[in-house]
Amino acid sequence: MASDRAEHLIILNDACKGLLCRVHWMAKAATPACLESKELGQLLKTFKKSFPKISAKESEQVKGFEIFRAKAEVICQELEDWYKTIRDVVAFNDKAFKCLNAFAADVSALDWSNLHLMALFFELLSGIVKLQIALQKVPNKARNISSYIAALELVQGKKDDHLSFVLEYMKAAMANQEWKYEDRIWVTVGYLRDRSVHLLTLVRGVAKTLWRCIQKWSIASSFEKHRLFSILYDASRIVQPAQTGKYLELEYLNRFREWYQFALLVCPAALQEAEARFCLNKILALHFNVPVFRDVSFDLGKVWDKTFWEFKCGHKTQGTKFYLKTHRDLVFKEAYVKANDTALEHRALRRYLHKNLRQYVCLFTEIPGLAAPKFQLVLALMKLASEEIHWYFQHRHSTPFKHRKINWISNLSSDKTIVKLIEALVDICSLTLKFTPLVKEYFIEYIKEVDAPKVETELKKFFQYCAGKIPQDVQTTMMGLLKQARNATLKTSFTKVQLDFFRVTCWLSSRKTGIAFQTCAPVLAVFNELYTHFGNVLHTEQQLVENANIGSIIWYAEEFKEMVVNTLGSRSLYSSCMTLMHILGYVKYDLNLKYCPDEQQGLIKMTIRYGEMVMDEICKTILKNYISMGNFQAYLDKTIDINIQIQNLSHDKKKHAMVSQNIIPGSESIYGGDAYYNFQAQAQGLGLLLDAVRQVKQCQVFTVVFNTYDWLYEAMDKYIFQKIQAITIDNGSIRRPSQILRLVEREKRAMSYVEQHIPLNTSDLIRGNMLKHFTKTSAGLIGDNLVIDSKSSALIHKIGKFYWDILKSNVDFSPLNLVFKTKVHGKRAKDEVLAEEYTSHPELCALCRFVGPYGVKALQSIFLSNLANGIVQLKSVVAKNGVYLGQLDFVDMASWWGNVVKVTEKDEFLRSAIHVGRCLQFLSLLKTSQRAVQDDSIPFVSKVVHLVTKRIESDGKIKAGAQLCNVLIDSGVEDPKYNLGVRNVFKKVFDNKAVLSHFPKMFACLFISEIWKDTKYTPDSEGFSTGVESLITTIQTVIPALCETEKKTKEHLKDFVVLSAYALLHMNSKVESQDREMRGYHIPSMMTFMSKFMESCKGIMSMHVLEECLPFTLIRTKIIEIYEKMETAK
What we know:
Largest sheet: 2 strands, antiparallel
Strand content: under 5%
Shape: elongated
Oligomer: single chain
Structural class: mainly alpha
Helix content: 55-70%
Radius of gyration: 46 Å
Number of strands: 12
């Protein structure tokens, strides 16, 4: 029955889609892992050469057969689906051609009145052709079939029962696999033509129907001419419902172009009709690369060329001989020479469709109620746009037949703005999906109020005219459709409507009804419209997604990547960047994925990988524009400084004349203000990117949700982390802290621009990355963990090492200015670092602001860790001289002097002690600066917290734990664990109490050294020429750190003072007696040193301790002597 054939067409079309999916997956799995072994190479070549003769026994002597035997079960498992796909294709071909032949013999005509039936027929016919072409493109067919059959024979002891059918098909349709692809495809076409002979009449009959449509809507200008989608020319058309028939015809336009070309390819005799030749001419002109499935396309130019030269039919004696080559120039050649014009026409069509899509997006946004009456129009517009997008990707890297002869311009097929059309398609699809409830309600009412009465009227006429010719079951089915129209709801079964519709349509189109097709045409037309409207109700979302077909773009992998590059490489396309993610989000709506689960899993992984790639590229582009904007901003800041300098020089004409005009910034300069315009352009581009990201906060790709804010935050976080390091380090050296702060502030200003577009807490970004660089964990805890990795790349370590190197260089400490100064001898080197530029109070305050409280704590840890090495040297010198230090007798001058002379390495000890003192002085300056910074932020906070802490500690209610330490550090108060850390450093080194008792003697012996011989006090800076003032800090830190009690500390400090005073008295007496040994020592400077030492010991020792041994009058006399010489020198 005709109704059964309609059901067969539906089932076979569905099966064809499934087989195409499986064949597409076959091409990717053409080389399974089980056959990749090199040991099987010789055996596989044998299988390929001997095909179609397959025998495992005859291959036993071939090298690698034993390995093949061992892998037989694995090979069967991996190639089973692969082989069965070919077997299913063979079975499908037989059933499909049987159904098509029976359908062609039964149906009287196909035209627009039975559009859906015509679409079913041509979709199946073209699907068969596509299936054979796709299978022909699969590599290694002969090898894999032979491998599977041989493995199956080894495992089961027999070959496949359907092998003979497969081999026959491979010979008839696939040809010898050693041939060139063009030769093999010609065999495939011949196979299809032999089996499509009975379809000729139906294919010829459709030519006139399709010619009218193809001719009318061939180029973009025809759409513009008929104002098909434009509603702005006539305001009354805005609210008018779209005409179903006209827009349904447009919806199927490109599909019929594609289907009819395949039909003519297998039924070339239909080209005897002039309309068929005209159709083919237009089709070939517009589509020189034919889509097969997904990313698989095929250039039929050579096949058509050979067809036009060789095809002939009819009988010469009967006068029906037809030579197709006589029409080659007018049909085929005339089509392919227009390839350049075709590319331009498609580009114009894309622009036209984009304009109209945007028009309807605006219309539906303002008036959502119009989405329902314009739904059929929107479906047609979306389908045309989708097919045009896929045409672009199919032809992007393809060339037409004889492209050199026609001077093909490859750039014409390039369109960087294709993403704009995709964006418009995504917008109209997502917007219309929101209004699907309105669409459903509208068409339910339309079916009840309009379609049902029309169907009832036409049926009454038809029943009256054809009384007695209509079978009762057909009449019942027609009335059933009418009843479903009258009672249409959202719960109506679309499957039942579909089956009833095609049963009725097939019967009305059948030759066996005895009723003329023209008589049935009105009934077919109303049923056709009714079925379309039922689809709009029951398959609303599915139709929108299928017509948009956005997700299929993912199959064009290289073209998709190229589109990503083009989109993010042009500022005008930045606003469309998130469309790339929308494409990936629509992949899950590909209904063909259900046919091949293995392919589905692979596609999910690939799509998610593309999503990660797209988000990475978007974030990189944002950062690129952000960095460029910052660079131009930096340039503008420099030019502002230059302008100020020029204004300062303007009063002096001579100096102003020496200023180069090239550096004058702004629009009045010779550059015309390019930097400012570039800055504006970069800021505009960055704003477009950020706005696009803001509008799409989340995008779901299958089960993975891409949070755009999180991706951008992570990218910005990585950039800021690296930027802080780049800001700090310049050409291997650390920038001045004040300069670093200026660069950080500039970065904050640039980040605020990002925050204006996206609600990202940029201050947290900068603060968080500073904590990553400068927290205590990056350098260890003071007093707890001082094991510092000297090779660490942490930024805080680099800063600490830089300052450590400064203090190790030739520097002096100025007690008056509280700054370290570099001793410059002669001309300053270009790359020489001046200590005063980094250790002044403003610079250290800037450093504290930059690294923060925990960064300061980390620097303390780094310095104390490095100090351990210097303290070890102190210990070694004291240990070496322990015998002589223990024998020092201050009663006998001769023995005392003799033992002092015997003490060695005094200068080395003094240098190490000075360096230790400098480091401790630097840490003290750093703490002072940190307290000042905190007090600037919150006045008196350090004093308040300090007082409160002291009160709590005195009450014994709280101990100096981690939480209290954090509060103190944040407030600028000294860390209670700092002194403990210092003590631990020294105690780990000086674990011998005997060494401790020698320290005061060792420090007293230092006066008899080469360094002290060159030391002189400079009243201007209140310092000493060799930096021995740092020795005071060393003594006052080392001795208390090593003593367990305050009493012991006082005793050892007193010993040092007494021993030093004794030494100075004897040295002074020797100087007065003009002893040669004392001639180089400057005793007044030594006296001044001891005076300053006692001043620094206030609260621990009083001045009378020194005065008991060294008269104050003598000290005063020596100090006055220094100042008198200074005044005399002036």
